[in-house]
Design goal:
20 helices; globular
Length: 499
Amino acid sequence: MGTGDKVNERELASYIGISGPETPRYLLVNNFLSEFFLEDKRGKEQQYRYKDFFDKKILICEEDDEQKKKQLEESFNYFFQRFSGEDMISFSENSHHYFPLKPQMLRSASYNLRHLLYCMIPGIEKEEVFCEVQNLLFEYLYGGADGVSYLMSTICEKYFGGDDWKREEKRNYELDMLKSGNFRNVRKNFREDLYKLLKHRFFRNLDFYKRYDYLATLLDFYVIQFVINKKAITSNRGYVLCQGSSHLSNGEAYHLACVQNYSEIRFVFQTELKEFYIKCLKEEQVDDQDIVVENSDDEIFVIGKNGKKEMIQFVRQVFNSNFKLDAKPSLYPSIRKVFALDGVKEKPYSAEEFVMCYIDMSKARKGSALSKISSALNTCGKDIEFVFPKTRSRHKYFALSPSLLEFLVRLYLAKEESTYAYLDNFLDSLQEKYGICIQKNDQMDKMLKKMHMKVPFQEFRQNEQALIDNLDEINCLIRLSDSGYVVTLPEEKGEFTLL
């Protein structure tokens, strides 16, 4: 185990699958698109402004008054910054990112998800599948433009010209874990949903910004699907308890069950991190013997197969810890507390005990491996308004926001090739395909029983009513005369007739 060369860090990311979130949310889309399209040759440092377009004679200003001319320039810069997405995507003063209004504007960022979504497409390592997805993405994003997106597209096309946009060389396939059991259905569903979104008129007929936003929602949604299915050992998929809206009372039993369910799903990262660290620690053990910690007034040592090493040096080498060697005065008190070393000269630990102490010591530290990796669930969930509250509260839960609910209705109706569907069929699909449990049924009863939670029947009714009210507010619900419900698209609701 070397130190400083990040070998262990890469191995950890490979073991768990990801190393952190990709945020802001539209960077995740750009990173995904960069698997198929070439990136902006000018580099991320270049910021596009009025002068760039004026110098290329794309913009002409006939105003003679210098003050008014400056105001016009500033107005254009504000307009371009707003509708190019720069103020929504860029996250540093030295790096500028844009919506790819033309493929030549594409700029990516750190691949913390390790190309997860690219690898999630079944058969992407085959040339024909890669080219098919590449062409579908191009047609989806650039097949038509109107309104502001047409104006922006025209300006950018004249500036960027007809440079090549296709990436010819495919990325090497990673994440072999996706080929195992419970991810098979997730990958199948991702392909089906991606292709449906890229092809269907319910998405294709919208403007560029809405199309781009829906693609971002789909990608974030499947990062969450990856997480909830990581430890679905007892079935072929993972499940989530979900609130019909984010407004249910915080004190109710069903809400508390949702909080516990989210916590258990998030805990998968700590479990995998523990497994990985135990595997690393095995190389420091002699025939699975205990790891011995030696405590003195001045220093703390770990005695392993390769001799005695100072504690911070040891965890840096074995776990690729980011603890600094000169931080002993600040770290030693917490190490002695977590490892229960006060008044103890020497203490043995099993591999699991040592690892759990190390995780407890490091997980609260900013930038720890566990905090970065586990933040992917919360970040992606908040980006598409699937995880609440949006504050730093530790008591988080899954709930369907209006925007996510409308997207899921649209995707379901596209799959059904219909503008209407019964609400019960839609809810059944959410559970069967994505593991999103809203209604009381056998699956939900199993989950509550496993968590030792009892929920009064009226709270299930309240949750279903919250979902109905949510659908009604976004204009995706039609009430039938027999107390039944139909889901539809907002733009199609006025055309409904009962046969």
